[in-house]
Structure formats: structure tokens, C-alpha cells
């Protein structure tokens, strides 16, 4: 493991990492009764017949006409992992800013950002007109763009990657984990995610003893080295 300087920024994936459910889109599909159509769109994307933007457009069309209140009601089925509040509080108490990078939806993530004082959570945005969803989604984060987004944010914030603690669960988060001075896989979805991490958490609460007792100036004492 390479040495690390003082942690100056914590970067989080949201869904599957801080929240239990990995795919908030599926929560909405099920609640609105369009999960079968959405599954067909997903298969088209994974088979290469449509690109990410086309996939998002098709899924968005299934929700057109729904109200903000209907979307926000879905949050009840999308709880935080046990220990997430304490983990975020650990950084907040030490005045270490938090950044979220999520392929999820801003209407789910913005309340989280406000409650826990995130610097920002970059995610995809539902477009409403007078409280009614138009069917359009502004894409700010694609699955293969998280590393680029983090690089841009680090440059804007003036933060060295070695001073970053990153938390993620899926293959889309591997670039975040590889860039960070401290990489934590939370309930990793596959062996590649696990291999990219310095620490693996696979049980709740996720505010693991090792993290909450992490020195503000960690060096090389945490876990096994990365491959």
C-alpha cells in the first residue's frame, strides 16, 4: 500500500454503498408497475443494441406524468445502510468534506446531501414541469464516467488523490477506488471491486471500527496492499 497524506475529501457512491438498494431505478419501476418494460430496456442496453443515453430516455418515458410526490414516496423503499449516518458524521465532525458521485437520481440524493452536509452529490436529474415529470432525464453521470468526474472535481477543489478516501460497491466505482489514497469497498458486487480496495466492509453497521478509528493522518497501517 502506498503512503497517504491527511484525508481532505471523502468520496461516496450512494446506491449500494450508503443505501442498501443498488438500483433506485428498479425501485421506481416496481412502484410504478413498469418493471417488465424496463427489464426489456435493460436487456437491450446490455446486449449493445442501445447506448446509455437511449436506455435512460426509454426508462424516463415510462415515468412521464408522475408527480414529484410519487417519486419521493419511493424513498421509503430506499433506506440508508445501518451505520451510514455515523460514517458520514465521522467525516463531518472532523470537517472533512464529502462528495457523492452517483448514477442514481438527484431527487433521491439531494435530501441526503442536505441532511449530511455534502459538498455536492453529482447525479442524474429528473426534469419536472410544475411538479409533473416530463419524461426527460438530464444525464450527469454515466456508469463509465465516475473516474473522469472525480478527476475534474479534485482539480477544482485542489485536492491530491492521495488525500481522498473513496467508498463504493460496484464495477463503476473501481476508478474511484483506484484513484484514492484510501479505498473502501462496501458490500462489493464482484472480485474486481474487492481487489481495488484497501478495506472491505461486508456487514452492517458500515461505520466499521477500523474506519472510525482511522487516524486523520493515515499512512500504511490499515489492511492488505492492493494488487
Characterise the protein shown here:
The structure is a single chain. By secondary structure, the protein is of the alpha/beta class. It has two domains: 9-20 and 80-129 and 136-212, HAD superfamily/HAD-like (Rossmann fold, 3-Layer(aba) Sandwich); 25-76, no CATH class. It is built from ten helices and seven strands. The chain has a seven-stranded mixed β-sheet, with helices on both faces. β5, α8 (174-179) and β6 (182-186) form a beta-alpha-beta unit. α2 packs antiparallel against α3 (52-63). The radius of gyration is 18 Å and the shape is globular. 36% of the residues are buried.
Summarize the structure.
The chain is an alpha/beta fold and 227 residues long. It has 10 helices and 7 strands.
Task: Please state how the strands of the largest beta sheet are arranged side by side.
Answer: 4-3-2-1-5-6-7
The largest sheet is: 7 strands, mixed
CATH topology name of the largest domain, in short, is Rossmann fold
Low-confidence stretches: 217-227
Task: State the shape.
Answer: globular
CATH first level of the largest domain: Alpha Beta
Query: Structural class of the secondary structure composition?
Result: alpha/beta
Mean pLDDT over all positions: 90
What is the assigned CATH homologous superfamily of the largest domain?
HAD superfamily/HAD-like
Our count of helices gives 10
How many DSSP-defined strands? 7
Order of helices and strands: EHHHHHEHEEHEHEHEH
Helical residue percent band: 25-40%
The CATH level-2 architecture of the largest domain is identified as 3-Layer(aba) Sandwich
Strand content: 15-25%
What is the CA–CA distance across the termini?
9 Å
Calculate Rg over CA atoms: 18 Å
Integer tally of domains: 2
